């Protein structure tokens, strides 16, 4: 995939928003003080379109995405468009938060929305842990970095790779190989020197979705429930994202399991970060399904 990123330096207003929102921190200021693409990270661009969705001057273009075809103007507040569509059009994965705590009443509303998620077989078997204490998330970060640093070192060994593949299965291993490992490799230097938090994203609050390992598989139920939570957060003026990078670190670290009070024989299936979005996106992003058949 050719993800060449071009920046029109003549129209760029130097607002730095593209640098801020890029999930993979691919953009940076060059030595000549211009917005530039980091050559060591360019390969991690997955065309999420966030940089283009926020640029007020259309100065940044990712190859394969066009302002005309892949983005749309967001409905204004006076639009009579159906509230649900307005909600999904304006939702983005938020990775930059205001330094402002999330009020408990809003977290409670999110919890309530999660409880409305459909269970495959009632009753709901999902358990959640609401981390409203930001300090716990900050405290967890060094252990997460240590764990992922260890993983990246370990996967250099083909025997360990073989056992990881056996443990997680072929399909999960493919995701690890194609996404997780390259992203972690490019992120670890800054994570370790403390200049970037690309794991917890400095989120003020977080919900952990946990499941009893001895009970039936409820991972699909959890995905739906986390989506309800994510949309509820957005509807309340909050933002965040489902974060699959957080659970494996908690799962494998005894201290983190203790810190987040994960009960014995339970696994953290996914997580949802929550906070007030720092930036506002100017356009929505259109994406195509891989295929749509009508029968
Ligand atoms: C199941 C799932 C897991 C995700 N895990 C992460 C994650 O670990 N870290 C992260 O920064 N974003 C994560 N995201 C956010 C996606 O990267 C994001 O949704 C995608 O880039 C599209 O951007 P958008 O949500 O703004 O449309 C996850 C999203 C989903 C649905
Ligand atoms: S968002 Fe657009 S205007 Fe702002 S720095 Fe990036 S390219 Fe320039
Ligand atoms: S498309 Fe997404 S990943 Fe690629 S440079 Fe833009 S914000 Fe970063």
Written overview of the protein:
The protein is an alpha+beta fold. It has two domains: 75 residues, Alpha-Beta Plaits, CATH 3.30.70; 172 residues, NADH Oxidase (3-Layer(aba) Sandwich). It is built from ten helices and ten strands. The strands form four sheets. Strands 6-7-9-8 form a four-stranded antiparallel beta sheet. The chain has a two-stranded antiparallel ribbon with strand order 1-4. A two-stranded antiparallel ribbon has the order 2-3. β2 and β3 form a beta hairpin. The site of one iron/sulfur cluster (SF4) has 14 residues, from α1. The site of flavin mononucleotide has 12 residues, from β8.
Summary keywords:
295 residues; alpha+beta; Alpha-Beta Plaits; NADH Oxidase; 2 domains; four-stranded antiparallel beta sheet; two-stranded antiparallel sheet; 10 helices; 10 strands; 39% helix; globular; binds flavin mononucleotide; binds iron/sulfur cluster
Question: Would you identify the CATH H-level superfamily of the largest domain?
Answer: NADH Oxidase
Major beta sheet summary? 4 strands, antiparallel
CATH classification, class level of the largest domain: Alpha Beta
End-to-end C-alpha gap: 32 Å
Give me the side-by-side strand order of the main sheet.
Answer: 6-7-9-8
Category by helix and strand content: alpha+beta
- Secondary structure: number of strands: 10
Please work out how many helical segments DSSP would assign: 10
Q: Radius of gyration, rounded?
A: 20 Å
How much β-strand is present in the residues? 15-25%
Bound ligand species? flavin mononucleotide, iron/sulfur cluster
State the CATH topology of the largest domain. NADH Oxidase
Rounded average pLDDT: 95
Q: What is the overall silhouette? A: globular
Contiguous uncertain segments of 5+ residues? none
Give the second-level CATH assignment, the architecture of the largest domain.
3-Layer(aba) Sandwich
């Amino acid at each position: 995939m050719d993800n060449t990123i071009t920046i029109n330096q003549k129209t760029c207003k130097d607002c730095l928003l593209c640098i801020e929102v890029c999930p993979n921190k691919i953009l940076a200021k060059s030595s000549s003080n211009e917005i530039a693409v980091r050559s060591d990270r360019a390969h991690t661009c997955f065309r999420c379109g966030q940089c283009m969705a926020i640029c007020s001057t259309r100065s940044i273009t990712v190859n394969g995405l066009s302002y005309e075809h892949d983005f749309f103007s967001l409905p204004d507040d006076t639009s009579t468009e159906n509230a649900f569509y307005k909600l999904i059009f304006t939702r983005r994965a938020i990775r930059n938060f205001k330094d402002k705590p999330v009020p408990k009443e809003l977290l409670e509303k999110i919890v309530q929305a999660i409880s409305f998620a459909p269970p495959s077989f009632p009753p709901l078997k999902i358990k959640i842990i609401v981390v409203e204490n930001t300090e716990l998330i900050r405290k967890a970060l060094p252990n997460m970095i240590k764990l992922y640093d260890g993983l990246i070192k370990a996967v250099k060994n083909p025997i360990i790779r073989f056992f990881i593949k056996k443990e997680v299965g072929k399909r999960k291993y493919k995701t690890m190989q194609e996404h997780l490992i390259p992203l972690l490799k490019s992120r670890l230097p800054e994570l370790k020197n403390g200049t970037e938090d690309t794991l917890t994203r400095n989120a003020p609050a977080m919900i952990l979705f946990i499941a009893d390992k001895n009970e039936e598989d409820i991972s699909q139920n959890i995905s739906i429930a986390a989506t309800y939570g994510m949309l509820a957060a957005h509807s309340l003026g909050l933002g965040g994202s489902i974060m699959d990078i957080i659970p494996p670190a908690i799962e494998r670290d005894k201290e983190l399991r203790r810190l987040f009070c994960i009960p014995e024989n339970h696994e953290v299936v996914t997580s949802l970060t929550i906070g007030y979005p720092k930036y506002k996106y100017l356009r929505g992003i259109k994406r195509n399904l891989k295929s749509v058949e009508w029968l």
